[in-house]
Amino acid sequence: MSTRAQIRFATREEGVSFSEHPNAIHAQFYKHSDGYPEGLGVDIAESIYNSGHPIYGWEIEGLGIKHGDLDYIYYIWQARGKQTFISIFKIGFPEYCNKCNQYVGNKEDQCIFVGYSEYEDFNRFQVSRTNKLALDFISKKFPEKKVIGFQLNKSDHISLNNCLHLDCCFQPLGLGHVILYPEGFKFKEDLEFIYKFFGHDNVIVISQHEMRQMCANLFSISKKTLVSEQGFTRINQLLVDLGYSLEVVPFSEISKMGGLLRCTTLPLIRNYE
Fold first, then answer.
1. Radius of gyration of the chain (CA)
2. CB contact set of 39 (below 8 Å; sequence gap of 6+)
C-alpha cells in the first residue's frame, strides 16, 4: 500500500494539542505515496531549512477532509516568536507486530479494500469506475475501519491490461488467503503491502489468462465455503487442498462482460458463525 500522509500547517499554543483547537489549522495537503518520515519528513525539514528545496506530489485539500487510509499526519507549526517545528503522528491501524512479523488482531475485519483511480487516470480512462472522492466517502461512512485504497492498471483498448474492478485481481478469502493478480496493481508498494498483510504463504497468484477468465471473482458464502466457476480447474483444486468447500457452477459466459460471481451478487447480511 502506498504510504499516505496528510500535511497540516498550524499555529500552536504551548501545551495545547491540535485536536483541542482544530481551528488552528490554516492549510492542509495530502500526499498519496512516499509519506514516511525518512522521505517526506526529511523533505519537509530540508524545505524549512532551505527555502529553495522543492517538494513534489502534494494535493491541496479542504480543512475538513479526513481520510481512512492515512499512515502519517504531519503538523508544521510555529508558536509565537519561536522556530518552526514538525510533529509527526503515525496512524497505526491495523497494528503490525515487528516481533512476530505479522499483523495482529482480526485484520481483515478491520479493513475495507477499495480499488480506485486518482484524478488523472479517472479522467483519462473510460474503464475507471471509482475515484478518490468515493474513497473519501467510504472513509467517512466507516470511521471505525481502516480504508485501504489500491490504484489499478487501466486500459480502454487492451482488455488483458485492464483491471476493471478490484475483485478482478484481488480476492480475500475466509481462511486468511488471498487470490492475487500482481500485474493489475499500478504501484509495487501496494503489492508489498498485500504480501506483508496476508503473508507470502497465503497469497495465491493467478496468471494473466486466469485473471481474464475472472478466477479472482469468486463468491464467499462463509469463511470456508466458496462459489466458483466449474472451469477454474487449477484454482478450484488448490482451494480444496487449502481446506475450502466449493460449490462449482457453469458461469463462464458472464465473464465476457468483465465480471463473474462476485460481481453478480450483493450480500446484504453476512453471518459466518
1. 21
2. 3
Closest Cα partner for 151 from 136, 166, 141, 173?
Answer: 166
Phi, psi torsion values for 128, nearest 5 degrees: -75, 125
The model's pLDDT over 100-129, given as tens digits with 9 standing for 90+, comes to 444 444 555 678 899 888 877 778 877 777
DSSP 150-192: EEB---SS-GGG---SGGGTEEE-TTS-EEE-GGGBS-HHHHH
Domain ranges in the chain?
Answer: 5-90, 96-212
Backbone angles phi, psi at 3, to 5 degrees: -85, 100
Nine-digit cell string for 15: 501545551
Q: Please provide the distance, in angstroms rounded to a whole number, between the alpha carbons at the two ends of the chain.
A: 30
* Residues 9-58 pLDDT 10s: 887 766 666 665 666 788 899 888 888 888 898 888 888 887 767 778 88
Whether this prediction's pTM lies above 0.70 is answered by no
| β partners of residue 140 | none
Q: Say how far apart CA 43 and CA 61 lie, in whole Å.
A: 20
- 61 forms beta bridges with 28
177 within 8 A of 202, measured Cβ to Cβ: yes
Q: Which amino acid is at 169?
A: C
Residue 77, beta-bridge partner list: 10, 85
